[in-house]
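RESIDUES AND SHAPES:
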Amino acid sequence: MKRRVLLLGGAGFIGYYIAKYLAESGGYEITVADDFSSGSRDHDFTALCDGYGINVICADLSKRNGFSLFAARYDDVYVLASVVGVNRCIEAPEEVIRVNSGIILNTAEWLRAVKPSRVLFASSSENYAATTDAFHWPVPTDETVPLCIADTRHPRFTYAVTKILGEAAFFAYGKRLGIHTTAVRYQNIYGPRMGFKHAIPHIIERIYGGENPLKIYGADQTRAFCFCTDAAKGTVLALESDVSDQQIYHIGNNDEITIGTLTRAIGMIMGYAGPYENAPTYPGSVSRRCPDILKAKNELAYMPQISLENGLWQTVLWYRSFFDTGNVIAMGGFKPPESLNFSSNKEAVLL
């Protein structure tokens, strides 16, 4: 009998690749629930669902009545839905709090009725964004890192606040209800169809738009990037593992590079021949981030396969096709850090 799987937020970036991985693996009856507010009901998503017979439900998960559309039983539930993006946090932090907290609390309460066998909550490395800088915590960083918000008044951290809430909520509900519960903290996942809210598509967008000189925002900051298909497989491994109940796993890659190196690599792939210029990064952005993925390797047999060079080529090709065929950015898009001003009470104001 096929396992009945529900992907909340499954039309989003990582959700799409999880659905694709499950569909290609076979043995699953897949349902995707999403509100499609970010324009995620695109050709790729439609083709995947039509090709594999994936059930699609349009639902606003930030509202309790959105869950009335679901079946009475699922074996596996992936909680992936959330509002994400630095620009969104800075421009509308109250919406990030409202939507993400609503999704978390509504889903947790819904678990009382449906009681699936397994639940996975998609968390983030943003949860410990301040720990490495403020307390000099070791990098690469493992799952024992204390979670830290530098300043709750700073809108940059509203997304992280909701992810910390989500971890605590689902572990508490899972233990109370007897549901196998796991959390994964994603670490700079990238790839085709990732939208326009993150560093890599921002760089591609700016090069495609003819920016010259090309600015490198936070050139000396380091990150470790993980390709979307590796992240999807790691997520499924985490949910389905017999040892993952009440456990947290860092899902990413531990090949650390500077933003300067990343920007120049993308510039090379896209044929950019102009000069580069270092520039300040977004307020609240940490100087260094790289996950220790040893726990996921040892307990889940997780092993990233796609090199950064290979992944960047695939990503650039997808975005070039997007722009070349006349598509326009529906949501997100690059906004320079210089356009943001932070007052003394740490509230962001668009100039």
User: Anything to note?
Assistant: The chain is about 40% helix and 20% strand.
